[in-house]
């Protein structure tokens, strides 16, 4: 299962940039014992990298009852993180200091979805 974005993924992500802020949807399934490891990653993200790149956690919560989902589509946690731009997120994941802690996320998860979202303009 894919856990971390690859170079080709980031290139496509930047190439599809509509401009403006981006909210990254994180759907997380933890590996056995992974919650504590993920918390170490989240602590580093919140203390150093989100402030450095203008990001903010909009929501972080436990997964609960899946009302509409196929078997295996429920998630342990959901996190929404807003960045001022796709470029800011891309710079963060390329940061050598960030790369020293990203292994914690990789080790903590058995499966993940990381999807860029952009807001709708009200009609």
Automatic annotation (TrEMBL):
Domain DUF1330: 35-111
This protein's name: Uncharacterized protein (DUF1330 family)
Species of origin: Mumia flava
């Amino acid at each position: 299962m894919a856990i971390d974005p690859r170079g080709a993924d980031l290139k496509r992500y930047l190439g599809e940039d509509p401009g403006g802020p981006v909210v990254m949807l994180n759907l997380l399934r933890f590996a056995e014992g992974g919650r504590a490891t993920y918390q170490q990653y989240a602590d580093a993200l919140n203390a150093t990298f989100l402030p450095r790149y203008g990001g903010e956690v909009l929501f972080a919560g436990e997964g609960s009852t899946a009302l509409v989902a196929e078997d295996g589509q429920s998630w342990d946690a959901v996190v929404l993180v807003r960045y001022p731009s796709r470029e800011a997120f891309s710079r963060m994941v390329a940061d050598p200091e960030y790369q020293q802690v990203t292994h914690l996320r990789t080790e903590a998860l058995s499966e993940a979805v990381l999807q860029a979202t952009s807001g709708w303009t009200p009609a």
